[in-house]
UniProtKB/TrEMBL annotation:
Pfam families: pPIWI_RE_REase, pPIWI_RE_Y
Protein name in the entry: REase associating with pPIWI RE domain-containing protein
All copies of domain pPIWI-RE three-gene island, residue ranges: 71-191
InterPro entries, per the entry: pPIWI_RE_REase, pPIWI_RE_Y
Source domain of life: Bacteria
Boundaries of every REase associating with pPIWI RE domain copy: 284-404
Span list, region Disordered: 1-22
Length: 409
């Protein structure tokens, strides 16, 4: 990677703009029903986005061919379903309203038998009028969750810009990248004092004189005005703000309890954007946990750990060290997703930087879910080879075991 020397970096950083995102989902014949689910989810996401924009007073200028019709992916999904119902000898949903109703129904209660993984069959696409986590995962995989993608890309672009502009070489960019990724995982709430410390850590200014790290913060967080002592309700497990009157943080697998974060506000404080929480914070929790546990092992000198190597080619790279040097290298990608079927469909592995063994690491709350590992493994077969699916505890245990063996050599 080259380090841009001027302010025109916004465009050039686009080269790395797709890091961490799914690309090139390869469909196989038996994935037909997953494709239908993805189309419907993409359609629902579009309908939601359109509704939000209209609520915000924006006039939608669609091409006249599309006017008055629901989005293309929704209609394609409906057509595919029509054929599935028809060949199964069932009566297809009569109209859009009937199909919306079907989207609120768990797949295993549909009149036709969908070929989805066991865990996915218990899910639905809509929970009342909200997209379910599965629908969001499906819409994202289909690349049609426009709103989510815009926010995610925006945050990512600003993060890369701060990392690149505040570094002198590739190693510096990588260090900055890790620090900023970690910030998004560790700090769902930022105080003004923390922002000041970030500005002194990343001092580079843009052409308007504003530190570019502030632009990144504005993209990833929303500012709340406040003065004096403020008590912010947060979860002591994941750090996410809790809603007043609701004890649960809503984070998958989190067993934290509501607590109070007391700060002294000077004008305001910052809370993560919903999309930042969804795409960077919550999925990052498992990555951070594994990295922290491996850091303890690293202190013993038997392994060396790299976080998000190659600017996030995957999450963790572990080198096992003997007296004579590096003996073996393991790579791990940690994934916290609701649907094992969709995770398997969208999973890819970047070969650079190289490693001898590859692991797909699951948080315990996914690995413990009946059928999850089996469904994921089935879906990965023939798509990605040589990847072992393990829970986070099992992965850390394997690293410790291997490190001991290597050290004894
Ligand atoms: Zn929590």
């Amino acid at each position: 990677m080259t380090i841009p020397a001027n302010e025109d970096v916004a465009e050039s950083s686009g080269a790395t703009g797709d890091v961490g995102r799914t690309e090139g989902v390869a469909f196989q014949q038996e994935d037909g029903d997953y494709l239908t689910v993805m189309l419907l989810a993409a359609g629902l996401a579009r309908i939601r986005d359109d509704r939000r924009r209209m609520d915000a007073g924006e006039y939608l200028t669609r091409t006249s061919a599309e006017q008055g019709l629901l989005p293309v992916p929704w209609r394609s999904g409906m057509t595919r379903l029509w054929w599935r119902f028809h060949t199964a000898g069932q009566v297809p949903p009569r109209n859009d309203l009937a199909l919306f109703e079907l989207c609120r129904t768990p797949f295993n209660e549909w009149p036709i038998e969908l070929r989805l993984s066991v865990a996915d069959l218990e899910q639905s696409l809509l929970d009342d009028d909200e997209l379910t986590p599965l629908a969001e995962q499906a819409a994202r995989l289909s690349g049609r969750d426009v709103e989510a993608e815009l926010v995610e890309n925006h945050v990512f672009r600003e993060l890369m810009l701060v990392a690149e502009m505040n570094a002198n070489d590739e190693g510096g960019v990588q260090t900055n990248y890790c620090d900023l990724r970690r910030l998004l995982i560790d700090k769902p709430v930022l105080t003004e004092a923390k922002v000041r410390r970030l500005v002194s850590r990343f001092p580079k200014r843009g052409s308007n004189g504003q530190p570019i790290v502030q632009r990144f913060i504005q993209a990833a967080y929303t500012r709340r005005a406040a003065q004096g002592p403020v008590a912010i309700g947060v979860c002591d497990g994941c750090g996410n703000p809790t809603q007043r009157g609701v004890g649960d943080c809503g984070t998958a697998g989190c067993s934290g309890r509501p607590t109070s974060l007391n700060i002294e506000a000077v004008g305001g404080y910052y809370v993560q954007h919903r999309a930042t929480r969804r795409f960077f914070h919550d999925p990052g929790l498992v990555e951070a946990r594994v990295l922290d546990r491996l850091a303890d092992v690293q202190a013993e000198g038997t392994i060396s750990v790299e976080a998000w190597p190659g600017l996030d080619a995957y999450d963790i790279r572990v080198s096992f060290l003997s007296r004579s040097g590096v003996v073996e290298v393991w790579g791990a990608d940690a994934k916290d997703q609701v649907s094992p079927g969709l995770l398997g469909l969208g999973f890819t592995w970047r070969s650079d930087p190289p490693c001898d063994r590859r692991f797909l690491v699951l948080p315990e709350h996914r690995a413990d879910q009946p059928g999850y590992v089996a469904d994921l493994t089935t879906e990965l077969q023939g798509r990605v080879s040589g990847v072992s699916v393990v829970s986070e505890d099992a992965f850390v245990a394997r690293v410790i075991g291997k490190a001991r063996k290597v050290a004894e050599r």
